[in-house]
Amino acid sequence: MELESHTFFHALSDPTRLRCLAMLHAQGELCVCELTRALGLSQPKISRHLALLRDLHIVKARREGVWMHYHLHPDLPGWMHEVLRLALDAFLVSPQGQADRAALRGRAGACEGMAALAAEG
Predict the structure, then answer these.
(1) By the 8 A CB rule, do 48 and 86 touch?
(2) Cβ-Cβ contacts under 8 Å for 98 (sequence gap 6 or more)
(3) Which residue has the higher pLDDT, 95 or 114?
(4) What region, left, alpha or beta, does residue 64 occupy, with left being phi > 0 and alpha being psi -120 to 50 degrees?
(5) What is the dihedral angle through the alpha carbons of 19, 106, 74, 59, rounded to the nearest 10 degrees?
(6) What DSSP state is assigned to residue 106?
(7) pLDDT-based confidence at 30, cuts 50/70/90?
(8) FRET pair for 73, CA 20 to 30 Å: which of 1, 59, 60, 96?
(9) pLDDT confidence band for 105 (50 / 70 / 90)
């Protein structure tokens, strides 16, 4: 599927999707539970935005047990990789980007903690 430029830029225009993409750009791959905790948003909201990005082939997902892990799609055209690199590098030094990265650094055990809560429930 060839992603049209206006669809690509529209996907980047949403703050939640931009924050998710910035974290994936910075970390390489993250689990939904890590993004949920770092961004302080609900799992359904994060999953909905990641599903849209996956459907547009901007990110790629892999399942590990019950967890879904996402990373930037390696087969994006070069110009899209360059746009993402420039935009996401700029976002990561913004106050919101720095706060998200700090929250992500404090995520140690995020998936394990959520697994323990699910097992109790």
Answers:
(1) no
(2) 92
(3) 95
(4) beta
(5) -40
(6) T
(7) very high
(8) 96
(9) confident
